């Protein structure tokens, strides 16, 4: 079951939420050249009156400007769109979740060191003044994904 949830979270006074369940239609873009057509599809469906949720990964940046270079996206789509007939208030979940404390970085130490050296060189050369460098971490998860999402929102004040 696909569920998309929007809202500022419980930590915001007068919080709101919107849930979209069971899409009528979905599309995904796995290649850069599929991203803009996916967005055109989403816009068309939204203009026709449907609820549409769109996810665009950071790695899809080159679809908008070929000068933007990112890491290859392994298994996660570059973009995804779901078309929904209705929206509803989001239900709270009481279910628990378990996340392994054994987080693994997607890069090794030498890749990290090389990236930091490059960033420092770019700053020293005046090509940039700030870089927000990040990399993926993976772990295992079991339980209610939405309940975990809510726990994270509350913990981070999202």
Structure description:
The protein is built from 3 helices and 9 strands; from the N terminus they run E-E-E-H-E-E-E-E-H-E-E-H. It is of the alpha+beta class and 158 residues long. The longest helix has 16 residues. The chain has a 3-stranded antiparallel beta sheet with strand order 3-5-4, covered by helices on one side.
Quantity of strands, as a count: 9
Helix and strand composition category:
alpha+beta
Distance between the termini: 25 Å
Tertiary shape = globular
Q: Which value, in Å, is the CA radius of gyration?
A: 19 Å
Work out the helix count. Answer: 3
| Mean pLDDT value | 86
Task: Give the secondary structure arrangement, pairings included.
Blueprint: E1 3-6, E2 18-21, E3 25-29, H1 35-47, E4 51-56, E5 79-84, E6 97-99, E7 104-105, H2 109-124, E8 137-138, E9 141-143, H3 145-156
Antiparallel strand pairs: 1-2, 3-5, 4-5, 6-9, 7-8
Essential attributes:
158 residues, alpha+beta, three-stranded antiparallel β-sheet, globular
Outline:
The chain has 158 residues and is an alpha+beta fold. A three-stranded antiparallel beta sheet has the order 3-5-4, covered by helices on one side.
């Amino acid at each position: 079951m696909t569920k998309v949830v929007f809202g500022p979270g419980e930590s915001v006074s007068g919080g709101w939420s919107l849930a979209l369940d069971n899409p009528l239609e979905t599309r995904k873009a796995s290649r850069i050249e599929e991203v803009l057509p996916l967005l055109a599809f989403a816009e068309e469906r939204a203009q026709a009156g449907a609820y549409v949720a769109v996810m665009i990964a950071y790695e899809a940046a080159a679809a908008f400007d070929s000068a933007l270079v990112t890491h290859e996206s392994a298994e996660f789509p570059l973009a995804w769109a779901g078309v929904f007939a209705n929206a509803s208030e989001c239900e709270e979940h009481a279910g628990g979740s378990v996340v392994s404390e054994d987080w693994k970085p997607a890069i090794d130490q030498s890749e990290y060191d090389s990236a930091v050296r490059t960033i420092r060189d770019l700053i020293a050369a005046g090509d940039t003044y700030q870089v927000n460098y990040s990399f993926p971490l993976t772990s295992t998860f079991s339980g209610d994904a939405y309940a975990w999402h809510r726990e994270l929102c509350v913990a981070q004040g999202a």
